[in-house]
Write a structure and sequence with these properties.
Elements lengths: L2 E6 L4 H12 L3 E7 L13 E4 L3 H13 L3 E4 L6 H13 L4 E4 L5 H13 L5 E8 L9 H13 L17 E3 L2 E7 L5 E9 L2 E9 L6 H10 L5 E4 L2 H4 L7
Parallel strand pairs: 1-2, 1-3, 3-4, 4-5, 5-11, 6-8
Antiparallel strand pairs: 6-9, 7-8, 9-10
Helix pairs in contact: 4-5
Amino acid sequence: MAISVAVAGSTGRLGSLICDVVEADPRFELVARLRSTSAPEEGADADVFVDVTTPDASQAVVERALRNGQKVVVGTSGWTQERLAGLAELISELPDAGAIVVPNFSLGSVMGTALAQMAAPFFDSIEIIESHHDKKVDSPSGTAVRTAELMSAAREGRPVNAPYADQQARGELVAGVPVHSLRMTGVMAKQEVRLGGAGEVLTITHDTLSGESYAAGIRAALAAAPSTHGLTVGLDALLGLDGVGK
């Protein structure tokens, strides 16, 4: 039997792509395309509820789906560590609840973050430059935030050399790592992690050239969702990369 899927935020770039991926794969059945004007009960019968709405709306949308007994895949940015902690607490209170929060559905991006996490303990300086299209409303991106947090954890408390971090032009500090966000016409998505040491700089770059790069990650998350329990953050856990850098 096909896994029934409802997509909230279906009119956005990512939401439209997820709907296309679902409809093209016989393992899934798209039962609801939800938008901001949709009634709360729409899509409530789907096996898997996908949230790709906005950072302001996401928390309430996800909580409602979990309380409905649905498995949830979250692709919306803005899920901070504080929000994730609250989500984990909610899930622990609900029988058989499960959610997968995906900062980036691109397999290449996930692997780039894993490489950055692996390299982080060996360099004194780390900075992230992330670029997205001019319609992306949040910054830093969820991918940049997760990359910074994972690199910081891999350093086990050793601070990053980030001089003059109080100056606005030095970017926003995320887990002690300066992150610079560009929002530009002509760009889809790009992230550079630059790691500096004595006499050398290592740059780990990932370019998203089209929405096709997200399709494999979307399928992986949807396939895993019905059997997920608790909170899973990142595709790395689904790909066996969650131990990298530890």
